[in-house]
Amino acid sequence: MIGVNMIKLSSFFRGTLCVRGLSITSFLVLIVLAAVFPLKAQTCSCAGAPLISSQSLGIPEKGNLVLGLTGNYNNIDKLYSGAEELNNRTSERSTFTSLLEINYGLTERLSFTGAFTYVTKERVTGLQTQSGAQTLQTSGIGDAVLLLKYSLIKQTLWKPYQFVIGGGGKAPLGSNSLRSQGLSLNADMQPGTGSWDGIGWMLFSYTLRSKNIHFFTMNSYKINGSAERFGSNDNYRFGDELNVIAGSQGPAFNKFSYGLKLKYRSSKQDLRNGSFMPSTGGKWLNAELGVTFQLSDRFSLQAAGEIPLYRDVVGTQPTTSYIVNTSLFFSLKKLKSGFNFGKPINN
Amino acid sequence: MKSLMIFCKQVVIIIFLILALPFVYEVKAQPTDENGVNWISYADAIKQAEEKKVMVFLEAEWCVVCKRMHKEVFTDNEVSSLINRDFFAVKMDIESQDRIPVNGNMVSKMEYSKSIGIYGTPTILFLDRNEDIIGNFVGYSDSGEMVTLLTYIVSDAYLTESLEEYTNP
What we know:
The complex is a heterodimer of chains A (347) and B (169).
Chain A: H1 3-13, H2 24-36, E1 65-76, E2 78-81, E3 84-86, E4 91-105, E5 110-125, E6 134-153, E7 161-171, E8 179-180, E9 183-184, E10 197-208, E11 213-223, E12 226-229, E13 234-237, E14 241-251, E15 256-267, E16 271-272, E17 275-276, E18 282-294, E19 299-313, E20 316-319, E21 322-331, E22 338-341
Chain B: H1 2-24, H2 42-47, E1 53-59, H3 64-72, H4 77-86, E2 87-93, E3 99-102, E4 105-108, H5 109-115, E5 123-127, E6 133-138, H6 143-154, H7 163-167
Parallel strand pairs in B: 1-2
Antiparallel strand pairs in B: 1-5, 3-4, 5-6
Helix pairs in contact in B: 4-6
């Protein structure tokens, strides 16, 4: 959340909350359960690891470290041809991504964001066939996103909006050449892409102060590089990707707040050895509803569910039926409420 | 065509929900009955600061929590009695251009609020007889917490211990 707004949110909640029974221990148990949850799933053009769309709002203040630990489950069990659903699917996929997001305020306006992943993908084939279903699972460290964000317009008590731009790249930390029983696996079953990608990012938000509601739009564009797989004779390049998110965030009751997002993603077709890969790329529009609970001055818990509203894929592709995720956020600096000596500026 | 219609319908519903949700949350705090606390101007409070400490309640027109405190806390008998007996109480709109005397200079209330680095509303400032800021309290506090805070300041306990130590000896 955004500095001033967070203060105001927490101020609103002070003294009004009773739900203190949900301890940090309980939450950690939940996170651990999420981490060991049987990993299904996979992706295709449907982007397994939520690297870009997970970027949180705003930037931390100078010297503050904000950590986010997220478990994201992407169930990909619909089959689409263009915008039409097909009923004769023979496979399904799922992806589970554990994501560590690090945000650090370098100056009052400049911050660093790093997102690191561990990805597990699963593909079940042979559905609705006599041969029976076969399951293939891969897992490993995924790619990482590194971004610098600069606040062109910084939100204050007197200025209820902000404009932040960012730029960086995706580092190919994950493997892109995994094999199974000696066979090369498709690019969409690899934990990483193998390529260095460039990312442009921006956020604009406006706060309706009388109701403490934030409206925002967060957009990014990723220009992908290419990578050699399995030696040097298999050059693969994932399609460039546009992400547009619009939504609102505000108080619900007690220490709960809500978040609503409309998420649009457009991906170009992948290229393999200079030729377009069939059945890659497309457009997706999803809706996400999330709930955040302020556990303490430093910890907050968030859960969200996402469903597709529309998709128009290139060719025939498996695509997402739903996504769920749970996050734990930690802020090194406590919420600045309560009594402090001297002027507010000194604290 | 059919799927396009369904898609359009879903988009309309979602956009409606996004726009409507802010208004589902009703602001319960209403304009306050301030019979409890004797609010005076900043200039008058500073003039008399030799007699009592000054409590400045920094608020904003759009601040829901501020209105809630006016309604729920400053109308509480124990709170208002304590404030009226031991403090000069001042309300200050952080966006106001009205000018006040601060350390011999005339500045607007907004300039003053910015100069001391306010980052959230409400903020309560406590000033001593020299117009120096003893401390600040940010955010909502209920009547019980407010009584503790006021007692902590008026008893000069802040000179020797933190509010946490004072509250949990």
